[in-house]
Amino acid sequence: MAARKVVISCAVTGSIHTPTMSEHLPYTPDDIAAQAIEAAEAGAAILHLHARDPKDGRPSPDPDVFMQFLPRIRQACDAVVNITTGGSSAMTLDERLAAPLRASPEMCSLNMGSMNFGLFPAVERYSDWKFDWEPKLLENTRDTIFKNTFKDIEGILDKLGNGCGAKFEFECYDVGHLYTLAHFRDRGLVKAPLFIQFVLGVLGGIGPDPENLLHMKRIADKLFGDDYQFSVLGAGRHQMPLVTMGAIMGGHVRVGLEDSITLGRGRLAKSNAEQVARIRDILENLSLDIATPDDARTLLGLKGGDRVNF
């Protein structure tokens, strides 16, 4: 099941890192659009997108903010747009779904279960904060749960899958999430080809150990056979080693400032495009071909960029 062409996904801003952590983290619509387009030009076939409040960078579910950058990205490049349904643990399910339901994108992310999602250790690493909301949001993850129940997932699959024709990046933070996905497959609520994102290194999920990636792949093979494609997300400093390992194993890769703000030990990445260029260079030096957006559409059975609402 080795991928003949490697799909590079770029997660442009997310809701994990905060403006204090990196001056290069985009949070205005202008910056999100510019960095997304640059990442696509550098080789990203899929752009995974969150929105942030333009005033202070806090995560935002507001569809009006999304619509300030989504049309600009579509006009400037052919990359597949993948909109979050995860948002942040501080958002309600209705808030998280408002933007993708309006935009009707080709792809959406879908976290395959409720989980602890611990960002609070980052509070200890900084003393001066640009905005008051930053340490509060991070510390609140000590006592909040990211909620995606079976009912929540059923609703997302129906509203965005059946209702909008979107396909999903199934984000699996632990082995149990693979079995949850298999459950929905067995019920006929999801169908091949599945695009599974192995997420390693988030506190509350499976750790960023190479043997865990091997185990996730082994269980996915057991459950899904040839009916899936996989990609690898390594959090923080584990990004490049784990995604490179995933590509060697026959998978796809995800980079971006949502997942890591660095480009190596002690060096902040200056842009999303810089991370995309780095992993593209690694892949090409491994004699692997880089997938175009249309390659990704064919591989994942997407509806096409002409059938979105932005």
UniProtKB/TrEMBL annotation:
Alphabetized UniProt keyword annotations: Metal-binding, Transferase, Zinc
Pfam families found in the cross-reference section: BKACE
Cross-referenced InterPro entries: Aldolase_TIM, BKACE
Cofactor: Zn(2+)
GO molecular function, one term: 3-keto-5-aminohexanoate cleavage activity
Record carries keyword DNA repair: no
Name of the molecule in the record: 3-keto-5-aminohexanoate cleavage protein
Organism encoding this protein: Zavarzinia aquatilis
